[in-house]
């Protein structure tokens, strides 16, 4: 592909070399060293939350679910309109996902559909700030409080987004970030749990470092999910350039919107920029009138060497690993009921993410739009 759906944001090469040069003197390249602690501190300042770094966003999400003490076998209400990691994390922690439909306006969990799904087995709600669109945090928070439920936000797409002046990472009992290479802020691989209650900080640290407290004490059964010094250094560099990268993404997104205005098919998704939200422009999704037109645009772009992505198709509840006939685990077989999320299914069948990065040129955007609308 000559133009991919995204392009990893990298700092100037010399800047990264300068950042990692001290590691060649110290030989301290992992186990929560100077770079790890510096990045964690910088993220705490930026988000206004406690931050615990992890080696990737998926393990951060699993750790958040475990650290909050959700009872084994309890139900977590979430959305199927997301990357499979969200559902996998719930299942891998021995919890049962219950799928809630999404809002047609932005693809986030629909609070109107939420309360009927709550029962005595429900322990938490796991909404997704899909494409960086902020969930209805007020209503979700009110419903969760009324029923005594934890709220864990999958904020993998939402780093740097603000809602009514507040960082998106600040909502819920925990918010989980991904710093994967495809994300608007990247450490190449990495992630974090953002939290407010220091009671879970110790648990998160245990879960990412074998439960080891010091050289002679192992006080919990944890795993290994530490972010190493090289990737932390990449994060430190990328954080310096984050606002500039977002500004370039915004320029590209605004050009897409201008060129698509009046085209009729496809339309930007969401069609209107939400009030009170400062986006990070992490993706540029569009909606086609039909699945056939979406698939035709995908093929036309691919034929021209342009990568797009049917993000998210299929729904996670339709993943092969959760198919009733092939599944070997009872918790996965429970996902075979797929009729309760018609809005999510409709959006998934018509959505396409067009290429967007800080490096995309106006000429490339014009080519993408021309191929997408001339079907």
Protein topology:
Layout: H1 13-26, H2 34-47, E1 50-54, H3 57-67, E2 75-78, H4 84-92, E3 96-99, E4 122-126, H5 137-147, E5 150-154, E6 162-163, E7 166-167, E8 174-178, E9 191-195, H6 199-208, E10 212-214, E11 217-218, H7 229-240, H8 242-260, E12 267-268, E13 277-278, E14 284-287, H9 291-303, H10 330-333, H11 342-350, E15 351-354, H12 362-373
Parallel strand pairs: 2-3, 2-4, 4-5, 5-8
Antiparallel strand pairs: 1-9, 6-7, 6-13, 8-9, 10-11, 12-14, 14-15
Helix pairs in contact: 1-7, 2-7, 3-4, 3-6, 8-12, 9-12
Overall description:
By secondary structure, the protein is an alpha/beta fold. The chain folds into 2 domains: 13-240, Aspartate Aminotransferase, domain 2 (3-Layer(aba) Sandwich); 242-373, Aspartate Aminotransferase, domain 1. Helices cover 37% and strands 14% of the residues. The chain has helices at 13-26, 34-47, 57-67, 84-92, 137-147, 199-208, 229-240, 242-260, 291-303, 330-333, 342-350, 362-373, and strands spanning 50-54, 75-78, 96-99, 122-126, 150-154, 162-163, 166-167, 174-178, 191-195, 212-214, 217-218, 267-268, 277-278, 284-287, 351-354. The strands form 4 sheets. Strands 1-9-8-5-4-2-3 form a 7-stranded mixed sheet, sandwiched between helices. A 3-stranded antiparallel sheet has the order 7-6-13, with no helix packed on it. The protein has a 3-stranded antiparallel sheet with strand order 12-14-15. α3 (57-67) crosses α6 and α8 (242-260) packs parallel to α12. It is globular, with a radius of gyration of 21 Å. It starts with 12 loop residues before the first helix and ends with a helix. The model has no long low-confidence stretch (mean pLDDT 94).
């Amino acid at each position: 592909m000559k133009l991919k759906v995204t392009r990893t944001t990298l700092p100037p090469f010399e800047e990264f070399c300068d950042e990692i040069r001290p590691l060649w003197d110290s030989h301290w390249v992992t186990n929560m060293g100077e770079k790890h602690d510096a990045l964690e501190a910088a993220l705490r300042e930026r988000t206004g939350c406690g931050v615990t770094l992890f080696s990737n966003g998926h393990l951060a999400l699993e750790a958040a679910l475990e650290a909050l003490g959700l009872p084994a076998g309890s139900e977590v209400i979430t959305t199927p309109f997301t990357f499979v990691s969200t559902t996998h994390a719930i299942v891998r922690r021995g919890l049962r996902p219950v799928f809630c439909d999404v809002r047609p306006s932005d693809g986030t969990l629909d609070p109107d559909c939420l309360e009927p799904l709550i029962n005595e087995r429900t322990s938490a709600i796991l909404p997704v700030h899909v494409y960086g669109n902020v969930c209805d945090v007020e209503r979700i928070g009110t419903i969760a409080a009324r029923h005594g439920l934890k709220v864990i936000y999958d904020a993998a797409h939402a780093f740097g987004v603000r809602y009514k002046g507040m960082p998106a990472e600040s909502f819920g009992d925990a918010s989980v970030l991904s710093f994967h290479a495809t994300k608007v802020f990247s450490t190449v691989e990495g992630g974090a749990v953002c939290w407010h209650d220091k009671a879970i900080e110790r648990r998160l640290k245990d879960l990412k470092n074998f439960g080891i407290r010091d050289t002679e004490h192992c006080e919990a059964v944890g795993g290994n999910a530490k972010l190493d010094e090289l990737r932390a250094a990449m994060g430190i560099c990328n954080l310096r350039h984050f606002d500039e990268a977002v500004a370039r993404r915004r320029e590209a997104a605004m050009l897409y919107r201008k060129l698509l205005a009046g085209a009729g098919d496809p339309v930007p998704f969401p069609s209107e920029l939400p009030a009170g939200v400062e986006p990070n422009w992490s993706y540029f999704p569009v909606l086609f009138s039909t699945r056939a037109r979406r698939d035709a645009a995908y093929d036309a772009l691919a034929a021209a060497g342009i990568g797009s992505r049917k993000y998210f198709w299929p729904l996670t509840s339709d993943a092969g690993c959760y198919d009733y006939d092939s599944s070997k685990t009872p918790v996965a077989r429970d996902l075979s009921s797929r009729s309760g999320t018609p809005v999510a299914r409709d959006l998934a069948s018509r959505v396409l993410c067009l290429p967007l990065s800080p490096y995309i040129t106006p000429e490339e955007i014009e080519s993408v739009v021309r191929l997408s609308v001339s079907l």
